[in-house]
Design brief:
This protein has 285 residues and is α/β, with parallel strands linked by helices. It has a single domain, classed as NAD(P)-binding Rossmann-like Domain (Rossmann fold). Strands 2-1-3-4-5-10 form a six-stranded parallel beta sheet, with helices on both faces. Strands 11-8-13 form a three-stranded mixed beta sheet. Strands 6-9 form a two-stranded parallel sheet. Strand 4, helix 5 and strand 5 form a beta-alpha-beta unit. The chain is globular. It starts with a strand and ends with a helix.
Length: 285
């Protein structure tokens, strides 16, 4: 395939480029310097010049709190930017895979969210990403694939794992981490492999793509400390209401996604998150 990757400098974009390159695809990796998706004219020019078979749209404004304080930018990048990419795909007859988020849900469920569960974001980040989903599907229909994932971590870039490792290695005091938000830690290398399978299979629609087995941020942090040879008892559990300073954006308390569509298509599930964490810690070391 000829694959154009937006947001290629990000942690997921980096691994998508690596996955597709390793598989023998012709890959055009675009970071913000050479493709600002919020710029419609530039986006149409770049997609038109490349003429890809598929665009994997990883570019996004991900800082949840910054999205809350600057919603104009959130919608400009996440919703309108996705519209621009989808328009470029429509003009070149390319398929599009759009990376979305668990934040499209309100977090009030008590069972894992399937792909058909009603959405209801509670933050501007979630609203803007849901807007991107709708733009992709409205413009491309069966040529659009939505990949919702959560709690992403990888070897390239800053994320929860690298933050916890930095805190573990510097000082010996307690680290406070919330224990009332549940989700599935997910690893970019695993997601990138599934994204390519979806691209090769020309599979449309919405897919939840997360590593198996839910936990809390506190449980995740404790596993990172233990897996890297540090004392997990240094990780103290607190409630979200105890976080200081108070964060601008609300977080869903339940972000567990059921990967029902992957199972329905007979695609392999992602490994349990602890197995992928062990591999990531080994790579980072």
């Amino acid at each position: 395939m000829k694959v154009l990757v937006t947001g290629a400098a990000g942690q997921l974009g980096h691994d998508v480029v690596r996955e597709c390159t390793t598989a023998g695809d012709e890959v055009v990796a675009c970071d913000r310097a050479n493709l600002d998706v919020a710029d419609r004219q530039q986006t149409l020019q770049v997609v038109g010049a490349v003429g890809p078979d598929v665009v994997v749209h990883c570019a996004t404004f991900t800082n949840v709190d910054d999205c809350e304080t600057d919603p104009e930018k959130a919608y400009r990048v996440n919703a309108f930017g996705t519209r621009n990419v989808a328009e470029g795909c429509a003009l070149t007859k390319a398929r599009m895979i759009y990376v979305s988020t668990d934040y499209v849900f309100d977090g009030r469920a008590t069972i894992p969210y399937t792909e058909w569960h009603p959405t209801g974001p509670i933050s501007h980040y979630g609203h803007s990403k849901l807007g991107g989903e709708r733009e992709a599907i409205d413009l491309l229909g069966p040529d659009a694939t939505i990949v919702r994932t959560s709690w992403l971590c990888g070897a390239h870039g800053s994320n929860f794992v690298t933050t916890m490792l930095r805190l573990a290695r510097h000082g010996d005091g307690l680290i406070t981490v919330v224990d009332d938000q549940q989700g599935c830690p997910t690893f970019t290398r695993d997601v990138a492999a599934t994204i390519r399978r979806l691209a090769v299979g020309h599979l449309p629609g919405v897919f939840h793509v997360t590593n198996a087995e839910p936990t809390t941020w506190h449980g995740f942090a404790s596993a990172i400390f233990a897996g890297s040879g540090h004392d997990p008892d240094r990780v103290k559990a607190i409630a979200s209401s105890e976080l200081l300073p108070v964060r601008p954006a609300p977080r869903p308390s339940w972000s567990v996604l059921d990967n029902a569509a992957l199972r329905g298509h007979g695609l392999p599930p992602l490994p349990p998150w602890r197995a992928s964490l062990a591999l990531l810690l080994k790579e980072l070391n």
